[in-house]
Design a protein that fits this description.
alpha/beta; Pyruvate-ferredoxin Oxidoreductase, domain 3; 6 strands; globular
């Protein structure tokens, strides 16, 4: 199958939906791939439960997505809240060689049992880095986007950077590109670890 399934879960205000739209933009506008996005959030948009899903068809000949919701097992899972982490199971992720990645925020999730049993994973203190390094949690989106870009390999880094420029205020572009670099570096560390583990 050429479908690539992404799920992002957390709570309102963490940039869950913005991140999903960035992935869609880079995949469809710059990557020329068919892609779709769905989202939902609780009655309280900020602080309430929130999720977004992205489905991308990696076959460039495909012009539309037949079913818009991401189906388990996912190719990529981003978890940003303790509550969301409780519902994750290792079998929710694919075990294919180049998919099945988990990223979670260690500054908001203290105990993530399922992560112990998932090989391809990165725990990053996203909110902590965003606030301490850039002064606002909104920069967490670019950190996550950097990791996603490297691990998914769906679109180029250039496409990702063009997307960031489109989504963030002009005055914050350089900071967002720095945050993107941080996310890339974390992903590159994971890929190196996985490669060394196979050798």
């Amino acid at each position: 199958m050429s479908r690539y399934e992404v799920r992002i879960v957390g709570y309102g205000g963490q940039g869950v939906i913005t991140l999903s739209k960035m992935i869609i933009n880079a995949s469809s506008l710059y990557g020329d791939l068919a892609a779709t996005q769905t989202e939902a959030y609780g009655s309280s948009a900020r602080g309430g439960k929130c999720w977004a899903e992205v489905v991308i068809d990696l076959d460039k000949n495909t012009k539309s997505i037949d079913y818009p919701k991401a189906m388990r097992p996912y190719d990529f899972l981003v978890v940003l809240s303790e509550e969301a982490a409780k519902n994750v199971k290792p079998e929710h992720l694919k075990e294919d060689e180049n998919t099945g990645y988990l990223i979670w925020d260690t500054s908001t999730i203290q105990n993530f049992r399922a992560a112990r049993h998932i090989e391809k994973k990165i725990g990053i203190p996203i909110q902590k880095i965003a606030v301490e390094s850039f002064g606002n949690i909104v920069f967490g989106n670019s950190i996550l986007f950097g990791s996603f870009t490297i691990l998914s390999r769906i679109f180029s880094e250039q496409s990702a950077m063009e997307t960031i420029k489109k989504f963030v205020p002009i005055a914050t572009i350089n900071q967002n590109l720095e945050a993107f670099e941080l996310g890339k570096q974390e992903a590159e560390k994971l890929l190196k670890q996985l490669k060394e583990g196979k050798n």
